[in-house]
Automatic annotation (TrEMBL):
UniProt xrefs under PROSITE patterns: TONB_DEPENDENT_REC_3
Topology of the protein relative to the lipid bilayer: Multi-pass membrane protein
Domain TonB-dependent receptor-like beta-barrel: 358-871
InterPro entries from the UniProt entry: Beta-barrel_TonB (IPR000531), Beta-barrel_TonB_sf (IPR036942), Plug_dom (IPR012910), Plug_dom_sf (IPR037066), TonB-dep_rcpt-like (IPR039426)
Domain TonB-dependent receptor plug: 55-173
Identification of the protein by name: TonB-dependent receptor
Keywords, in A-Z order: Cell outer membrane, Membrane, Signal, TonB box, Transmembrane, Transmembrane beta strand, Transport
Protein family per UniProt: Belongs to the TonB-dependent receptor family.
Region forming the signal peptide: 1-30
Amino acid sequence: MGRARRAKLTAAGFLPIACMMIGSGHHAHAQSESDGLVLEEIVVTGSRIMRRDATTVGPITTLTSADIAAAAPLSVGQLLQQLPGAGSSLNSNGTAGVSHGSSSINLRNLGTGGTANRVLVLVDGNRWVNGAGTRGFRDFVDLNTIPMGIVDRVEILKDGASAIYGSDAIAGVVNIHTKKTFDGADAKVMGGVTSRGDARSLSAETTLGRVFGQGSFLISASYVDQQPIFIEDRKLTTISLAGPTAAGPLGYYRLPGVTTGTNRLVKIAGAAGTSPSDFRLWTAADSVNAETGTYAVGPSERTGLFGRLTWDFLPTVRGKIEGMYNKRLSDQKFSPLVSRIRGSDGMTMPANHPFNPFGRAFSGSTFDIQRQLVEMDFRYNEQNVKTQRYAAGLEGEFDLGTEWRWDLFYSYARNDATFTSRNQIDQDKLALAIGPNDRCVANSCVPINIFGTLTPAMIDYIRYNARDENGTRQQQAAFNISGSLFDLPAGELGMAAGVEYRKEEGYDDPDPIVSATPRFQTFRRTTSAPRDPTRGQYDLWESYLELNVPLLADLPLVQSLDLSAAARYSDYSTFGDTITTKLGLSYRPISDLMIRSTFSEGFRAPSISELYAGARQTNLPATDPCNGGGAGRPGCTGVPTTYNQRDFNNGGILSTVGGNVLLQPETADTWSVGTAWTPDMVDGLTVTADWYQIKIDNAISSLGSQRLLNYCANTGERCELVRRAATGEITNLQDGPVNLNRIEVEGIDLTVRQQFETEFGNIEAVIDAAHLIRYVNFITNEDGSITVDDRTGRSDVLRESYPRWKGTGSLRWSDGPWEAGWRGRYIGKTTEVVGNPVNGGHIPAIIYQDVQLGYEFESIGVNLTLGVDNIFNVQPPASSVNQGANYDINTYDIRGTFLYSRLSARF
């Protein structure tokens, strides 16, 4: 049966139910005004079944509005990245241009932001649109597109949930709940600055709402401005651990016939560069710190607007419409570019060039000029990202002897971004400007003085400012129903079911200069990485069923024993269909102790960029292992023994570099066992502990052209990506992502919460810890063998850390109008075992400590809060793997002590 036919049948099956619900809801009200028009039940993240409490079989962390206020975050990303279960994530602090102003959440270190998106982000239970604004788009939710001002609370499910929510819910689910009905007005203003006087921030938000008769409305506006930190203003980042750069404003010059071996020349300071006597041999003392004046933390400005209108059409049928707009402006600052003039790229300089002081022609592999073009000024990457989301829905309830709820939902969302790169070099024009005079004249070029000072006209000729456009689109529609089928001896049999449709689109239009074909030779046209435009889309239909079955209740040592089960059928326009399931068991021997266990199947569908990334055909240097027939290798079957690669591919193998439409979904199995203890003997105490294990197969990664050829030849697998003619000639090599590797993660989460009521006020103490037992990548080699990459307790990967322990602790006190709090954030030690590690490869554990004091002026409805983050000015540990920034920018905070004040008022 075709996809369209299955979708129509699934939708048709739900139409009678929808009609019945609307009619039944009205009829139920006619019978009695007391017929449960408002159910005192809730939906908890990880299940779609209505419940009368927040207890579920899955481990959930909830950040309440009080928790959020105590953390005083400037963004949703900053809030979530401080969780113990969060791994190295893209953020706005210390990104040095890597995140391009975006922010992500990386649960269990299983990937997000350029590697793989294995955590699902929901807003009010519905999937959020993927972000935009990087160079080329990435398939993950940019948390900076969600205004902080609309957030009421956040639930984090630390368990697999693809059977409930679909793709990406492997490491867990983040569900951001927005403010619902609100009657009145409130406003908040917060300002902060580091103890060094930089990274100044200002945030303001206001909410206006009204509940009236049959409906309500809510409008929220927010603004955030974050100023930069310069690298020279932090000792750790002042000079790269790799040392200063050899190529400064005076440059270095390897000139065949003038220099020999590794010798280089440097221009004498103050000299004009018009005579050989203006140069001397380069020494290490000529190296410079070229990064001074660049950002360690880039600035960002965000504006958000959110509105919601609800209306009761019938006593049991309600509707809502909502809209959201968010704009982000961000930029990163880099040192002026270093010219790349290399004979190995085909560049030449004639003896009669007007600015050649040596009177010799230069070419070949030993011709190499590298000089920082300070005349061009600093480089900037600038992002202008606009996010829009519009949604409408109906919801209601009815009674068929048991209580039922239903909802119908549709949303359209889009991200549109402009990415501008300023002060880049057009390599083609640079080659013309230093090349033969006749070619320069023919192309109306401006010769440049690479040995002396570049004039504004020279700079303007070789400079270009690239403007990339990229974005995403998302449409989704869903119909859900939840209620009790009937009573069993141990309780109600709960059920939830639904059908969903979703369409995802993405595009990336690089600047025409970036994607253009070189005018001559084979060197890269610009200093921006070349890529071709990307266009792609896919859609899918899904249906799911979830049951909660009470097995036993009210027996000796069995207060309750419940079984939960869920299954989801997903049909994608790309790879086809898949079914995922989840089973859970919840056992309460006594009222204050619950033991829980789950098993779930998960999947991650290939993203638009993985499927459709702009393809570019190029000749790549690679050796064909099937040359001469391949000597019996499994993947060389059918290749004639007379095949000689030199006869066909001597200039390189024609390869298509880009996405791979043949990709299949990643799959995952997740197990968890845990307990939740709330002893009656100790008032206010809650202890939870959960063990988890996640195994991911078919993890998407890239081999590269040579490794792909070798892997096909040696194993006979992935050979569909290597196309050959009958002669054995490789006619095309699809060099893109493939399903290849495996990942296994195991750990324990522990939370202890104690609340006290004393004569001195209310006290709450919380300890939240995450212990990583094992994190292993199983990497497939080109001969089919497996390399075990154990990252547990290590920091050997750029911008990724895998400490065995992470944790937070907090202590909050309140008494009348006063409140105070302390919070500690612990990141455990790791080791580096690559290169020449600093501190013997030991990355020490650190603790950030924050304090806060607040007072409420009750008579005027105003609250004043003063706080200090990182009160002891703890700096990140140095890391040799992360040379340049000198620390893991996705794990640690470079700001140091940060002081802030917040004023809020309600009217």
